[in-house]
Amino acid sequence: MRNLINITDFTVEELQALMDKALDIIAKPQEYAQSCKGKKLASLFFEPSTRTRLSFEAAMHELGGSVITVSGAAGSSLSKGETLADTARMISCYADICAVRHNLSGSARVMSKASSIPVINAGDGGHYHPTQTLADILTIYREKGGLSGLTIGICGDLLYGRTVHSLIAAMSRYEGNSFVLISPEELKLPEHVVEKMKADGIPFEETADLEEALPKLDMLYMTRIQRERFENPKVYERLAGSYILDARKMHYAKKDCIVLHPLPRVDEISTDFDSDPRAAYFREALNGKFMREALILKLLAEKDLPAQEENIYSDPRFVCVNHKCVCTHERGIKHEVYYDADGTLRCAYCDEIIEA
Ligand code: NCD
């Protein structure tokens, strides 16, 4: 069975096929109106969500299917001490496919191992958010005419912003892209993302200066400072409001530099820029619904295919101790590790280094 846990679970050909399918759905929605008749999507959102949950649910309704929902950890048996693995086994009895959001890195992966229906990662802590990336790439594809040869600015909370990690993993696979990573020192990319970019030879520069970076960008991905992921609220207070993009600053950007944002925004994009044709973030949210329709169709159609191959090992000497990883919370978990391109041992759930 296929799942979508990490955006690299799909090849670039598969991503292209998803975009083609989404464009076909946009052109001929009536042809898809009964495609999921009799099928149920379980939408399990143990963390807050507006767009992702509603776009998944709207997507399933538009395909003629139905939806069952959990919204908030307090309303589910997780609050009684049920494991994610058991929750996944239960959901498999009631639905045909599920989308899950949870605050721990690796949570969707744990569920996919126990589930007998396809699992979609709708955001696992500060780790990954592959379906936001589906929305992002369709937007870039439609607005820029392709996904290669772009100078991509990413600004804000690169440390905790899971959408950023998945976007980089996706856009690094297209020819000729380079990245300008704009953040305060404390919110630079996590080590595992940087190491992967270095190993793959992806050109990137890091800066704290948005205004200086703006003129060279073909697109700018703004992000919110992820308040809920900070251990010390004082650090959040200090970094909040670090970047505010507005119509005045955008005078210095290229005339065709699109601005994306996974949303919700706080104050990092001023509303005075919303009416500029380069402001693509609300179109991006709409594209997300069509890509989720294409994704649901794909995973249901490929239900009987074998799961993606993984080069994973399990050895009782190698245990993940990252307290934001599902490994340190889920009872009975089998710790799993892999060697990255540099031979560094990493946790298969959260990608952090394992100290042997
Ligand atoms: C993002 C998320 O949940 O990671 N939102 C979304 O899914 N569109 C970004 C965010 O919360 O800042």
Explain this structure to me?
There is one protein chain. By secondary structure, the protein is of the alpha/beta class. The protein has three domains: 137 residues, Rossmann fold (3-Layer(aba) Sandwich); 156 residues, 3-Layer(aba) Sandwich (Rossmann fold), CATH 3.40.50.1370; 46 residues, SH3 type barrels (Roll), CATH 2.30.30. Helix content is 32%, strand content 14%. The protein contains ten helices and eleven strands. The strands form three sheets. Strands 7-6-5-8-9 form a five-stranded parallel beta sheet, covered by helices on one side. Helix 7 links the parallel strand 6 and strand 7. Helix 1 packs across helix 5, helix 2 crosses helix 10 and helix 5 packs across helix 6.
* Widest sheet, order of strands: 7-6-5-8-9
Shape: globular
Radius of gyration: 20 Å
N- and C-termini, Cα separation: 32 Å
For the record, the count of structural domains works out to: 3
- SS class: alpha/beta
Q: Which topology of the largest domain does CATH recognise?
A: Rossmann fold
The biggest sheet amounts to: 5 strands, parallel
CATH superfamily of the largest domain: Aspartate/ornithine carbamoyltransferase
Total number of helical segments?
A: 10
Low-confidence stretches: none
Number of strands: 11
Q: Averaged pLDDT, please?
A: 96
Give the fraction of residues assigned to helices.
Answer: 25-40%
- The share of residues in extended strands comes to 5-15%
User: What's the SSE pattern?
Assistant: HEHEHEHEHEHEHEHEHEHEE
Q: What is the level 1 CATH name of the largest domain?
A: Alpha Beta
